[in-house]
Amino acid sequence: MSFLKQGAGESDKVGMYFTTIGIVFLSLVAGQLIVELIAVKILGYSLMNIPDTASLNLSLALLLTPFLFVVVGLLLSVKYLHKRPILSVFTSRKSFDWKRFGFSFVIWGIIMFVFMLVSMNTGAPIEWNLDTETFIPLLLVSLFLIPIQTTAEELLFRAYLFQGFGLVFKKGWIAILLTGILFGLLHGANPEVAKLGNILLLFYIGTGIFMGLITHMDDGIELSMGYHAVNNIFASLILTNDWQAFHTDAMYIDRSEPIFGMESFLTILVLQPLLIILFSKVYRWKNWKKKLLNL
Questions:
Q1: pLDDT (tens digit, 9 = 90+) per residue, 72-91?
Q2: Largest Cα–Cα separation, the chain
């Protein structure tokens, strides 16, 4: 069975999807309230107004923790409300393919690193920012909590909602488009959108469509999970700036003025299509028309 159709079992009703989305939302709110309470009672400040003197690593950890509640709420709903295996929202294979995850993680990580080196050697104001006292804790937060955050988003958009739209519309391309749009709109509250304008939403929507496409053609979210995880880890651990969602004590800091530049167009118009071609060759994707149109 294809990954898209794994959300169309006997216990998978449209009403059940709305119930689970409600549970996911309440899980996120509960996580945020618990973390906010911890911050106010123990640290003395609200996460809605983090002081400049606060630890960036601790603040990042607290901001990421609610996503753990999302993962738990969603997976428990799949198991006990939909009554299907948890694996069904990760892949159509008999087990999660870590090699696929690792391949996507490494490939996109290398591309981003090379892109950063090129930018540094062409005059971009990227400065060395390493502080060993803060970098080690950041390493731990980035490697353990950011994958939870990205997995929560992948499970919600590229898995659960994707399969739900598959149940309703029966068309792969519709599920890809709708989840891509929702993924982009979700990021509308990010601080970089306020800096760059709504045009940045096109980048997020395009990226969401890209990840939905590779999920559908590969029948699992392993490739998308790897791409998403390394993308956010890189932004947290290797190269940061003072206006993006993840402002950290990263190894390098980019002092460039916020702008929707060529790198964004290059990513969605060149690099992501090239990755689709690469993945399709490596994993021998076939029957594109049949899978996308459900012919």
A1: 999 999 999 999 999 999 99
A2: 58
Q: How far is CA 87 from the centre of its chain?
A: 19
Q: CA 79: distance to chain centroid?
A: 22
Compute the residue count for the chain: 295
Task: Return all residues near 207 (Cβ < 8 A) that are at least 6 apart.
Answer: 180, 183, 184, 267, 268, 272
Nearest to 97 by CA among 6, 211, 222: 222
Instruction: Name the nearest CA neighbour of 225 among 142, 149, 116, 111.
Output: 149
Q: For residue 245, which amino acid is it?
A: A
Q: How far apart are CA 145 and CA 151, in angstroms?
A: 10
Q: In the structure encoding, which two tokens stand for residue 110, read together?
A: 């290398």
Cα–Cα distance between 61 and 56 in angstroms, integer? Answer: 9
Could you tell me how far CA 128 lies from the centroid of its own chain?
Answer: 27
Residue 173 CA neighbour count, 13 Å, CB half: 8
pTM here is: 0.95
Q: What is the distance between the terminal CA atoms of the chain, rounded to a whole angstrom?
A: 15
Q: Go through 37-62 and write b for each residue having 16 or more CB atoms within 10 A of its CB, e for each that does not.
A: eebeeebeeebeebeeebebbebbbb
pLDDT tens readout for residues 214-230:
999 999 999 999 999 99
